[in-house]
Amino acid sequence: MSARPTSAELVHDGLRRCAAARRQVSARYDRGALTATEWADFLAALHARDARWWSVLARTTIADHTIPLVYVAAVFDAEAAALRAAADWACTAREYTRNAAARVA
User: Fold this and answer.
1) Any idea what the Cα angle at residue 49 is, between residues 46 and 50, rounded to 5°?
2) Distance CA 13, CA 53 (A)
3) Is the dihedral of CA 76, 73, 23, 85 positive or negative?
4) Are 77 and 55 in contact (CB under 8 A)?
5) Could you tell me which of 81, 2, 92, 102 has the C-alpha nearest to residue 42?
């Protein structure tokens, strides 16, 4: 029987899957399979998923009083950066939608 993965291992795997999904979405956009709005929407969702993974790690690090505060701060910074990236990509998607609507009108 294998040992249960640690929270850090689960988060690492989740972040790795998100990074792979971002590469796949960008490749689909590069091939013309996605519009710019769809691409930006997907990236916003994937960065939001990153933020949720960082949030899992943040809860774990806060609960473990043996982890130095500098690592806890780094986790919170990573979560905040992922949330900012998600908001930026969501804003970009809205701009693409607005520009596409303006071209049609």
Assistant:
1) 90
2) 10
3) positive
4) no
5) 92
Return the number of other C-beta atoms located less than 10 Å from residue 94's C-beta. Answer: 14
Instruction: Say which residues have a Cβ less than 8 Å from residue 53's Cβ, sequence separation at least 6.
Output: 11, 14, 15, 18
What is the pTM for the complete model shown?
A: 0.90
Both tokens assigned to 18: 């998100």
What HEC string does the chain produce? CCCCCCHHHHHHHHHHHHHHHHHHHHHHHHCCCCCHHHHHHHHHHHHHHHHHHHHHHHHHHHHCCCCCHHHHHHHHHHHHHHHHHHHHHHHHHHHHHHHHHHHHC
Residues 61, 20: Cα–Cα separation, whole Å: 25
pLDDT digits (tens, 9 = 90+) for 6-64: 999 999 999 999 999 999 999 999 999 999 999 999 999 999 999 999 999 999 999 99
